[in-house]
Write a structure and sequence with these properties.
The protein starts with a helix and ends with a helix. By secondary structure, the chain is α/β, with parallel strands linked by helices. Strands 1, 2, 3, 4, 5, 6, 7, 8 and 9 form a 9-stranded parallel sheet that branches.
């Protein structure tokens, strides 16, 4: 897959730990019109380079993808250039990743404590060494996801230039610093500065949740594409809707309750298929809370979902929603 092909469908599903697994990626793709599915690129949950390097079984499991979710960008995180390069090469040799993405934006304390994710933005030299090592190790498209900076000392432009000089093919920028986590508003003007500073494609990320915000972020940043993160939680419909609007200007109606319940059932089925009933029940509780946010009676539904212990429990709750439509 070439970079040009990737940007034929310039709305991207962001990498989100605990969310963008195989089951969710399949659901998102199924909800995108068939015309646009071929090149639709979605990002995996971030995967540890150390875990891959030492062939950790749980880590390797995260690299598995199925035909129904490809093309997929596998996002890696780490801090040692040699180990990161080794991990990227291993992923490429699996033959199922369309893109290798590297994480410079994760704000999670346990990641930052290890000098990984957004912590690396404090050290452009190491960033350059890691990205250059990965670039030399792989031939497929290579991207990076960054924040505006670690703290109030915004250095996204500097890091973006380091990435470009290291051979990165495109870059995604979340319009917040690590210090902000997900609070406040994304600073799209700072993303615009990154876009103006580099020649490689730039994907804007942060606070896009509907057609109006999509228009505004594109107007302000002049970005080549937009990445959707938290707005897709419990709303896998949004990728297809925004993509169609981006390409055609047509606004599709939001899903009704029946459609939402149908997708929840399908999502749960895929979770069971990939992870087994016990894990699927635990993970679906969070997804169900997102799916039912804002619905009348949603609070009671979430209480019921949190009490569910088996697949049968979940299915009974979902069937009852359908029955009352």
């Amino acid at each position: 897959m070439t970079v040009k092909e990737i940007f034929k469908t310039p709305i991207f599903l962001a990498p989100m730990a605990g969310v963008t697994d195989s089951a969710f990626r399949i659901i998102v793709r199924e909800l995108v019109e068939e015309t646009y599915r071929k090149n639709l690129l979605m990002f995996s949950e971030m995967v540890s380079c150390n875990g891959i390097h030492y062939r950790n079984e749980k880590t390797l499991e995260m690299l598995k993808t199925s035909e129904g979710e490809r093309p997929v960008a596998i996002q890696l995180f780490g801090s040692n250039p040699e180990i990161c390069a080794d991990a990227a090469k291993f992923v490429e040799e699996l033959g199922t990743a369309a893109v290798i993405d590297f994480n410079l934006g994760c704000p999670a304390p346990k990641i930052v404590k290890n000098g990984e994710g957004s912590a690396l933005m404090q050290n452009p030299k190491i960033v350059g060494e890691i990205l250059s090592a990965i670039r030399k190790a792989v031939k497929i498209p290579f991207s990076v996801k960054i924040r505006l900076g670690f703290d109030e000392n915004i250095n996204a432009v500097e890091i973006a230039k380091v990435a470009e000089n290291s051979g990165v093919d495109f870059i995604a920028v979340h319009g917040r610093t690590r210090q902000q986590f997900y609070s406040g508003s994304a600073n799209w003007e700072e993303i615009a500065k990154v876009k103006a500073a580099v020649k490689i494609p730039v994907i804007a990320n942060g606070d896009v949740k509907d057609f109006d915000s999509l228009d505004k972020i594109l107007e302000i940043t002049n970005a080549d594409g937009v990445m959707i993160g938290r707005a897709a939680q419990g709303n896998p419909f949004i990728i297809g809707a925004l993509l169609k609007y981006f390409l055609t200007g047509e606004k599709v109606s939001p899903p009704n309750l029946n459609e939402r319940v149908k997708v929840m059932k399908r999502h749960f089925e895929k979770l069971i298929e990939f992870k087994g009933e016990n894990v699927a029940v635990r993970e679906m509780r969070a997804h169900a809370a997102w799916y039912t946010k804002g619905l009348r009676g949603g609070a009671d539904l979430r209480k019921n979902f949190n009490r569910a212990e088996t697949a049968e429990d979940f299915e009974k709750i979902l069937d009852a929603i359908n029955f009352n439509v």
